[in-house]
Amino acid sequence: MAEELDEETLAFAHRMFDLAREGRTEELVGNVAAGLPVNLTNDKGDTLLILAAYHAHADTVAALLSHGADPARTNDRGQTALAAAVFRRSTGTVSALLDAGAVPTQGSPSAIETARFFELPDMLALLQRA
Given 3.40.50.2000, 1.25.40.20, 3.40.630.10, 3.40.50.720, which CATH number is that of 7-128? Predict the structure, then answer.
């Protein structure tokens, strides 16, 4: 049975997810370096990496990847950081994820399916070069 987290711990976790959303790389990575799990997930299965990618923070994505964030992780809906970055049309974020080994066909919908569905030819071309 999972242990209940106290309010202080929950508030800290929420703050870390906010740092990822806001692209506050230095503070977030400082916490990762101090022991915060780099693949920490929220109640929807979103990782710090997925949130940073969705909000198009290429520097934060690159920093999380350099600290071991898993580009293959999916959230509870089967979405990947790469699909999120494609949806947001963030070339820098997509490139960082591809360089880290993210697979364009992984997830549901995959990054390729996302690019096709939203008619994003620039993103599809970037993914097909991978």
Answer: 1.25.40.20
CB atoms within 10 A of CB 119: 8
pLDDT in tens, 13-37: 999 999 999 999 999 999 999 999 9
The model carries a pTM of 0.94
pLDDT-derived band at 3, boundaries 50, 70, 90:
low
Contacts of the segment 27-31: beta carbons below 8 A, 24+ positions apart:
28/60, 28/63, 28/64, 29/63, 29/64, 29/67
Is-contact 61 81, C-beta < 8 A? yes
Long-range contacts of 120-125 (CB under 8 A, 24+ apart): 120/86, 120/89, 122/89, 122/91, 123/86, 123/89, 123/91, 123/94
- Report the pLDDT averaged over residues 66-91: 98
Domain ranges of the chain: 7-128
Beta-carbon contacts of 128 under 8 Å, excluding residues fewer than 6 positions away, are 104, 112
